[in-house]
Design goal:
single chain; alpha+beta; 2 helices; 7 strands; CRISPR-associated protein, Cas2 family; CRISPR-assoc_prot_Cas2_sub
């Protein structure tokens, strides 16, 4: 059960109440849970995604330990340009993902 961190920015108060019921609020808009299984993490992300689809305001970033991802870090975003974690010369870098229409051939 890996640690999960969610950072919110400029979102409605409902997010704070919902996330505060399942995670520790370390600072305004920063939530962490040291032991969250994948099922709970996915259900929380589903709720956040549905709300964001209706409200379309602010941004949300979620990170978690993921041994199958680059650098062992999973990343999901709402409201910001999509991002990818890439390994380059023994460093982890974050880059903006290319939209589907701009994907390289």
């Amino acid at each position: 059960m890996p640690m999960v961190v969610i950072v919110t920015r400029a979102v409605e108060a409902r997010y704070r109440g919902f996330l505060g019921s399942a995670m520790l609020e370390l600072a305004p808009g920063v939530y962490a849970q040291p032991r969250m299984n994948a099922g709970v993490r996915q259900r929380i992300w589903t709720v956040l995604s549905e709300w964001y689809g209706h409200l379309n305001q602010g941004s949300i970033v979620m990170i978690w330990a993921d041994s199958m991802a680059n650098g062992g870090l999973g990343l999901a975003t709402l409201g910001e340009p999509p991002k990818d974690i890439v390994a380059h010369d023994a460093m982890l870098l974050v880059r903006r993902a290319l939209p589907e229409t701009e994907a390289r051939i």
